Amino acid sequence: MTQARATIFLAGQHGLYHCTNRCVRRAWLCGIDPDTKQNYEHRKTRVEARIQQLGAIFAVGIYGYAVMSNHLHVVLSVEASAAEKWSKEEVVERWLQLYPARTPEQMNEKRVGLLGNPDAIVRCRNRLMDLSQQRGQPLNRASEFETRRPKPHHALNDL
Questions:
Q1: For the whole model, what pTM was predicted?
Q2: Strand partners, 76
Q3: Are 110 and 52 within one domain?
C-alpha cells in the first residue's frame, strides 16, 4: 500500500530513495495509448528534461530514472550539505527558477523581497532540500493538459 512522502522521508535525513509516479484515470505518459491510438512519445524528452531541471534546482541528486508508458521511476538522494553551502543569492535564484514571476519587473521585486527577508531565505533553503517538495513538482504541465479526456456521452446523460 502506498504511503505519503511525509511519513517515509524525514527532512534532512540522508539516504537513497526509489520514487515512482503513476498516471491515473488510464492516462498515458508516453508511447502509443492503446485506447486512443495517439502517440505521446514526444513527452518522454520533456519529462526527462524536467527531471534534470528539478535536479539542478533542488539539493537532490538524481542517480537514475526510467520514463515508462504510464509511470516513471526516479532514484534520488538529498544533498543537504550542498544546500547549506549556497549563498542567500543562490537560494533566491534557485527559488525563482522554480517559481518565476510573469514579468522581469515582478521577478526583480520578488528577488529584492526575498533577499530582504532572512526568514524567507531559510524557508526556501529548507524547501529546496526537501524531497517531498521536489517530488511534488509537476513534471509536465503540457502532458497534464493533453491527457484530459472528455466525459463519454453516456456519462453526460447522468448529470
A1: 0.76
A2: 17, 62
A3: no
Tell me the three state secondary structure of residue 48: helix
pLDDT tens digits for 13-48? 678 889 888 888 888 889 999 989 999 999 999 999
Q: Can you give the residue range of the structural domain that contains 100?
A: 80-128
CB 65 within 8 A of CB 17: no
Residue 19's beta-bridge partner residues?
74
CA-CA distances (angstroms) from residue 88 to 44, 59, 122?
Answer: 34, 14, 9
> Residues 43, 31: contact at Cβ < 8 Å?
no
Assigned domain for 154 exists: no
**DSSP conformation class of 25:** T
Considering only CA atoms, give the Rg of the chain: 19
d(CA 153, CA 70): 25
